[in-house]
Design a protein that fits this description.
With 96 residues, this protein is α+β, with helices and mostly antiparallel strands. 24% of the residues lie in helices and 21% in strands. The termini are far apart.
Length: 96
């Protein structure tokens, strides 16, 4: 495992087409911005274990448009996370 230290606003590049940006630091929490091709699945580690073997249909992300220095709005949750949360809640209810 490669461990890197980064400050807010700094980036990490993975290969030629993935960029991870340190968006915000708050206490012991870090917000990350991830730029990756639409066919690259991005998921929190703890959700991947819960959803092992579950097929989820996530709407395609719109093509990224190049912009000039415009302040980005606050990052919102990925559209698929609501669906993932519903699946987890349903599996917890049926497990009882």
């Amino acid at each position: 495992m490669l461990v890197l230290s980064r400050k807010q606003g700094e980036q990490i590049r993975i290969g030629d087409n993935i960029v991870v940006t340190i968006h915000r630091l708050s206490g012991n929490r870090v917000s990350l911005g991830i730029e990756a091709p639409a066919d690259c699945k991005i998921m929190r580690g703890e959700l991947r274990e819960l959803l092992e073997g579950v097929e989820i249909e996530v709407p395609a992300r719109p093509a990224r448009q190049e912009t000039t220095a415009v302040k980005q709005p606050p990052m919102s949750k990925h559209v698929g996370e609501n669906r993932i949360a519903q699946i987890i809640e349903k599996s917890l209810r049926t497990a009882k």
